[in-house]
Amino acid sequence: MLEDSGSISGICAEIKPPEYDLDSKIPEPDLKSLEKDCFEALKHENNTHSICLVCDSIIRKSEEKSFKMKELPIKKMEQVLKPEKLPIAIYKCYDLSYLNAKFENMLLSVKGYHSQSKTFTICVNCYTSLKGSSKHPPKFSIANGTWFFLI
Predict the structure, then answer these.
(1) CA 54 to CA 137: how far, in whole Å?
(2) Which position among 64, 100, 108, 112 has the lowest Cβ density within 10 Å, counted as fewest Cβ atoms?
(3) Predicted confidence (pLDDT) at residue 73 exceeds the cutoff of 70
(4) Residue 117 within a domain
C-alpha cells in the first residue's frame, strides 16, 4: 500500500521513462523475403488459400473459381484489364504474356496461375464483374490501380 506523500509529483518523480537511442536507425525489413515467407506459409496451410489472378488478393478456396486457359473470359479481360500509360515497372510485375500473347499489357497476378494444374484462380467478386456488362475493370483489380509490387 502506498503512503500518502501529499502530492502526485512525489510518486511520478520515482518513475523514470525508458531511455532510447534516438540516433540509431530502425532496420529496413526485407520485403521480398517477408512476402515469400507469407506466401509459402499460406500455400502450405492445408492449401486453404489462393491468390486472385485479377486483384492479386489472398482468397479462401471457398471464394475462388478455377479456370483452364480456354475457359477464361479473355475477350472481356482484354477490354478491361489493359490500362494505358502506366510505368513500365508495373507492367513487368504483372506480366503473364509468356503464357499467352493475349495477356500482353494485361495486369494479371503471376500468383494467380498454378503451373502444376495449368489453371488460373479468380475470386468471385472479380469473376462476377468480368461476367457483367461493365466496361470498367473490377473494383479492386490490379488494372483499376490496386498495385502491390516491389521495386
Answers:
(1) 9
(2) 100
(3) yes
(4) yes
